# Entry
Amino acid sequence: MPGTVKNAIKRGRSTVETAIEHGRATVGDALYHGRATVESVIHHGLATVESAIHHGRATMQAAVLHGREDIRIESVPVPNAGVGELVVQVGAALTCGTDLKVFRRGYHARMIVPPALFGHELAGTVVEAGEGVSDFAAGDRVVALNSAPCGECYFCEREQENLCDDLLFNNGAYAEFIRIPARIVAKNTLHVPDHVPLEHAALTEPLACAVHGFEDSRPYPGDTVAVIGGGPLGLMILHVAALAGCEVIAIVKHDGQVEAARQLGATRVVQVANIRKAIQETRALTPKRQGVDIAIEAVGIPETWQEAVELVRKGGTVNFFGGCAVGTHVTLDTNRIHYSDISLRATFHHTPAICRRALDLIAGGRFQADTFITGHAHLYELNRVFEKLMNRSSEIKTAIVP
Ligand SMILES: [Zn+2]
Ligand SMILES: [Zn+2]
# Structure
């Protein structure tokens, strides 16, 4: 008899344990599904709430450029989406060398005339899609480029859309919301893959310029490429070149840029303030001091344009990537250019096809997006951020989060 009781207890216990086990699995399952459902509801709810907030509001905070070193955060009307347009809630807007130039000079002949909304590198969430928009809806995460070509002019027909006679620019990224004009919605607004943070997606615009500049220099894998300048775009070009399998020599001025250049793939870094010395040291890194295959100038001053020509080997290519101030000129050694068969190129801006490749590069995982974003700041801190950038800090890009 005692044996039977013991057995019964044993059997009972194992039944209870099985029941508990199954129960636990069922609860776990329910929790998992429940969470997924809740998250999805929150996501959809948020998109709806954001849309509602947008619809319910008359004004927003935005940076307005009034002139030289004069940015003011003001209350301005919230934009609405007209036919073919989008309104995007800005998730992140990135500072850029061009914005810094505009901040210093107070205007940009082609891109911005004050007083005007300011900032052009952004990614965010659609809160309103205008009539006729079929590719995007409220809640979509997007990167909207700063320009779009007309698609009809002489240059657009020859796939040189960066030179479009009627390039349409959009500014206003340093704000809570931004209106995206119909042409940019149709040609240069891209869906951001779920795994890509918005602040990384916002790098699409400058990266497109960098990819364009690099490809335009007609590189071959294994080429030695010298990049003059350690600003955001210089660093981006050298990173793109390194990812493409080139040997990169970075020529930089400031201490903070040395580490960034190495981190992004430069095999050698030449740090000199003196241009003569930079040329000597760079040539010394090449076989028989013959010079590099490709030199890309990413500073935008006449002195370094001239330096770039002296860095390349016979048959080499120079790319004058950095735009200089209006009215500046350079003197070039005609003999050297002719008898050494040197190709001179200058790359400006980007095309819709290149913008798509740039976002693919960011989404692909090899591109070190995080290295380029060295700080975060609120919209209200924008003036302080630009003042800091003017003082040549080691910041590369700051993500402005409204
Ligand atoms: Zn930019
Ligand atoms: Zn055009």
In short: The pocket of zinc ion (ligand 2) is lined by residues 149-150, 152-153, 155-156, 164-166 (CB under 6 Å). The longest helix spans residues 2-56. The mean pLDDT is 91.
